[in-house]
Amino acid sequence: MLLENKTAVIYGGGGSIGGAVAGAFAAEGARVFLAGRTPAKLDAVADRIRAAGGQAETAVVDALDASAVDDHIDAVVEKSGGVDISINLITQEGIFQPLADIATAGFVEAIGKALTTQLITTKAAARHMVKQESGVLLFFGGSDAANTSPGLGNVQVGMDAVESLRRQWAVELAPHGIRTVTLLTGGIVDTFPDIPEMDAAKQSIIDSSPLKRAATMADVGSVAAFVASEQGRSITSTQVNISFGACNG
């Protein structure tokens, strides 16, 4: 197993992508700690993992509350002896409009929340990983320098901001043996609502790939598990492109 005896914390662990990543980690032997704000969603993911023979625990945590995040990660470390992997999969509040049409306050607030939760959760994990002199910090979304899609509003801007944060963490944490990697996705179509209004957006993601394919939740989970494992030990301070070539970050 790729992640046997590893401890992973997944913020947003009750979401669709969070659940997929948690399931992949657990299937590879990791003990996963799911954090989020909705107990029913967290429990549903944990139940699936346990039914498949994996180890999962849940906690209601507001990832915008630094004290709550610190208390949770301290409890995880006390219980498991350390933290090997941390990933924040809390979705940014997307405003899909032309920039000229977006209210300034809403634009700034959404990106501010995205950066705040990423900073809080990464600081909490890094505090313990520095003591261990090891660990993997995964980020999700990534920066696409070749973006040519109008109407993305604050979404790509927010992902670019988080990627800039990840790059700075990489510089500061590498001397402590901590790896930082972003999963560059280009859009995960099986997370989109199954409604006619989303068909064009799904097809656009598929059409932008040279292979005419789009990454799935299962793809995200399997790549995340590999990158976080010892087999991915040479991958750090970079983005891993899992967009089937749709992105050119």
Explain what this protein looks like in three dimensions:
This protein has seven helices and seven strands; from the N terminus they run E-H-E-H-E-H-E-H-E-H-E-H-H-E. The protein has 249 residues and is of the alpha/beta class. It has a single domain, classed as NAD(P)-binding Rossmann-like Domain (Rossmann fold). Helix 5 links the parallel strand 5 and strand 6. Helix 1 runs parallel beside helix 2 and helix 3 runs parallel beside helix 4. The radius of gyration is 17 Å and the shape is globular. It starts with 6 loop residues before the first strand and ends in an 8-residue tail after the last strand. 45% of the residues are buried. The model has no long low-confidence stretch (mean pLDDT 90). Belongs to the short-chain dehydrogenases/reductases (SDR) family. One of its GO terms (molecular function) is oxidoreductase activity. This is 3-oxoacyl-ACP reductase. Keywords: Oxidoreductase.
List the helices and strands and how they pair.
Blueprint: E1 7-11, H1 16-27, E2 31-36, H2 39-51, E3 55-60, H3 66-80, E4 85-88, H4 104-132, E5 135-141, H5 155-173, E6 178-184, H6 199-207, H7 217-228, E7 238-241
Parallel strand pairs: 1-2, 1-4, 2-3, 4-5, 5-6, 6-7
Helix pairs in contact: 1-2, 1-7, 3-4, 4-5
Organism: Kibdelosporangium phytohabitans
Protein name: 3-oxoacyl-ACP reductase
InterPro entries: NAD(P)-bd_dom_sf (IPR036291), SDR_DHRS6-like (IPR051122), SDR_fam (IPR002347)
